[in-house]
Amino acid sequence: MIHIVIPVFNRKEYTKACLVSLQAQTNQSFKVIIVDDGSTDGTEEMLRNEFPEVVVLKGDGGLFWTAGVNMGIRHALKEGAELVMTMNNDVLVDSEMIAQMYRWHKEKPKALLGALELDASNNQPIFGGERLNWKTNTIEHLLQVLPENERKGLHPVTHLPGRSLLIPRVVFDTIGVLDQERFPHYIADYDYTHTARRAGFELFVNYDAKILTYPEESGERQIRSSKTFKNYYKHLFDIKGGGNLRDFTRFTLKNCPPPYVPYHLANGYARRLLGYFLK
């Protein structure tokens, strides 16, 4: 059984829609664990009244994404989980997603599997995996190179986001849980999957497992929506800033091969300092 871990803080409408989409799965062999980090919008009451089957763990309001996910993962592992999926609450799940994850897990039982991401507003693909080349500091976006007739099955990648990430227990037994000390919010999923890959685990995007997301609702998109000095500061230094310089530096020093560190840092700093005004 897959244990699905979803950290939440308010935005109960998204959480409800996510859970309703999970109720519509053709394969119901899963258990949902919500980590509610101090929501004040009625999330707790909604979960209790409308989704009594969901396990709810309570945070103190200071967990952020990574610690919340880790709390749910540890609970799942204590229950004997062999498969854990991390998921964001602003995700809608295609009715075949769980079934397709089980299907391909059987083919690659030790691999980490991500999902094909569609824009909830128009059903168009917006994320299909990436391959990072440390030497050239470039990222190949699979959706830009894969013909439409090849957008099925598994495709290897170098890292994966945590929005709907299937992780076998053997991965946790080998490398532990996510690094919440270095990466309390952003980049923790990319760091974890890079770490897993170095430990010998394969990573794939499962193009047969689909999710729908709201890209304009992300915290970083909100920060970029109004170009102010305050938001620029948040972009570079806030714990939820997508261009957080501290997290990027830690990520590079931990994951980048040593010969390429100086160039990767210099290039990454430039992109974060200047890219805010270009997007």
Summarize the structure.
With 279 residues, the protein is α/β, with parallel strands linked by helices. It contains eleven helices and twelve strands.
What is the C-alpha radius of gyration, as a whole number of Å? 18 Å
The CATH class of the largest domain, by name, is Alpha Beta
Distance between the termini: 41 Å
Tell me the structural class: alpha/beta
Oligomer: single chain
Mean of residue pLDDT values: 93
Number of domains: 2
In sequence order, what are the helices and strands, one letter per element? EHEHEHEEHEEEEHEEHHEHHHH
The residue ranges in which pLDDT falls below 50 over 5 or more consecutive positions are: none
What's the CATH topology name of the largest domain? Spore Coat Polysaccharide Biosynthesis Protein SpsA, Chain A
Strand arrangement, largest sheet? Answer: 3-2-1-4-11
Question: Would you identify the CATH architecture of the largest domain?
Answer: Alpha-Beta Complex
Polypeptide structure, described:
The structure is a single chain. The chain is α/β, with parallel strands linked by helices. The protein has 2 domains: 2-217, Alpha-Beta Complex (Spore Coat Polysaccharide Biosynthesis Protein SpsA, Chain A); 220-275, no CATH class. It has 11 helices and 12 strands. α10 packs antiparallel against α11. The longest helix has 15 residues, at 64-78. The termini are far apart. The model has no long low-confidence stretch (mean pLDDT 93). One of its GO terms (molecular function) is glycosyltransferase activity. This is Glycosyltransferase, GT2 family. Residues 4-124 form the Glycosyltransferase 2-like domain.
